[in-house]
């Protein structure tokens, strides 16, 4: 079975790829705004084990956007399981904080990240969810 910490790695990659899919790579946030998103809090609930060499998909949804924080819901599912109606392997609730790269002090999530994330949050202009 897959080691439990692998779910954290998969979720991290899912968050990175979700931002990239929105046209907002993390590298651009670092270089253009001298900011980074860091994990402030994470909760993981494990439902079923992933087996070694299983292909998995990480679904990432924006739950809310606040001044300096972003709350995400992520689900790790076996590849093809979502279409088959199977439940998740794990569910994660992740709170990210935007901080200045140099001082490590909190800072407001800059544009265009803020608007793009708010647009996919529940109640946002574009509905809920980002692929991952």
From TrEMBL:
It holds the Pfam family 4HBT. It comes from the Bacteria. GO terms for molecular function: fatty acyl-CoA hydrolase activity. Residues 2-80 form the Thioesterase domain. Keywords: Hydrolase. InterPro entries: 4-hydroxybenzoyl-CoA_TE, HotDog_dom_sf, Thioestr_dom, YbgC/YbaW. Belongs to the 4-hydroxybenzoyl-CoA thioesterase family. This is 4-hydroxybenzoyl-CoA thioesterase. It comes from Roseicella frigidaeris.
């Amino acid at each position: 079975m897959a080691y439990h910490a692998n779910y954290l790695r998969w979720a991290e990659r899912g968050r990175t790829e979700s931002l990239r899919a929105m046209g907002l790579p993390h590298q651009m946030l670092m270089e253009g705004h001298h900011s980074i998103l860091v994990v402030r809090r994470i909760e993981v609930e494990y439902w079923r084990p992933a087996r070694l060499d299983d292909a998995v998909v990480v679904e990432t949804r924006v739950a809310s956007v606040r001044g300096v924080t972003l709350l995400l819901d992520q689900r790790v599912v076996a590849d093809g399981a979502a279409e088959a109606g199977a439940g998740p392997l794990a569910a994660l609730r992740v709170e990210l904080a935007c901080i200045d790269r140099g001082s490590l002090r909190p800072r407001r999530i800059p544009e265009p990240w803020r608007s793009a994330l708010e647009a996919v949050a529940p109640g946002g202009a574009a509905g809920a969810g980002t692929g991952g």
